[in-house]
Amino acid sequence: MIRVLVWNEFNHEQKKEAIRKIYPNGIHNVIADFLRCDDIEVRTATLFDKNLEISDPTCGITKEILDQTDVLIWWGHMGHQYVPDEVAYLVRDAVLSGMGLICLHSAHHSKPFRYLLGTSCNLTWRESGDSERLWVIEPSHPITRGIDRSFKLDAEETYGEPFVIPTPDRLLLIGNYSSGEVFRSGCLYCRGNGKIFYFQPGHETFPTYYVPEVQTIIRNAVRFLAPTYREMTPCPNVRKVDDPKGYVI
């Protein structure tokens, strides 16, 4: 089984009735529902509880939890500052040791994503209800398996270049908006022994996570990012290979 933890701020869905109508039980539960299957088990954690207070000082993320997580899915938007650095460092180290990380939509500004990529991850944005067509750049990649050469979202928040990220190891999708902007919408990275996938669609005011293609891409990403090796690469002082006393001091 691939063990997935879906993390969500759970803020907008509680504050605004229009968003609550789209995601009555939170974005995290919609994602969890379409992921659960024979080879994927899912847990959820949120920044805010049902009283709109910080759920706990760890935000539902501890080393013990991450040790039991193969892939972490992170949806964040307006609460990045409430995530303690210590929690973000735990996520960073878990990725470096092999855990997969999927950052959705505004999680481009989340602390774990920025700490792993080492840049501001800034971009241009506008909320104007533009439609978006996502184009598959690498149809042979496991993450885009089963997706046609493109698919359309009737409305999404417009993200645009420049997107201040390192050049992706693999660019899998490009978004093209009805207003003319283009955006690197599916970016894959390797960091340490882990893999990171940034996937742009998912603004909270639109039913993006009900779109079959979006669900397929996230499900494929979970399976692709699941670790085959899980250990932090050490920094030992070693002897010469031919030293009969052994390798490591």
Q: Strand fraction band? A: 25-35%
Largest sheet geometry: 9 strands, mixed
pLDDT below 50 for ≥5 consecutive residues: which ranges?
A: none
What average pLDDT do the residues reach? 95
What Rg is obtained from the alpha carbons, in whole angstroms?
Answer: 19 Å
CATH class of the domain at 2-120 and 187-225 equals Alpha Beta
Helix/strand/pairing class, anyone? alpha/beta
Shape call: globular
Provide the CATH superfamily of the domain at 2-120 and 187-225. Answer: Class I glutamine amidotransferase (GATase) domain
**CATH topology category name of the domain at 2-120 and 187-225:** Rossmann fold
**What percentage of residues falls in helices of 4 or more residues?**
10-25%
Q: Count up the helices.
A: 7
List the helices and strands and how they pair.
Layout: E1 2-8, H1 12-15, H2 17-22, H3 27-35, E2 40-46, H4 63-67, E3 71-75, H5 85-96, E4 100-104, H6 111-117, E5 124-126, E6 132-136, E7 150-153, E8 158-160, E9 170-177, E10 182-191, E11 194-199, H7 212-225
Helix pairs in contact: 5-6
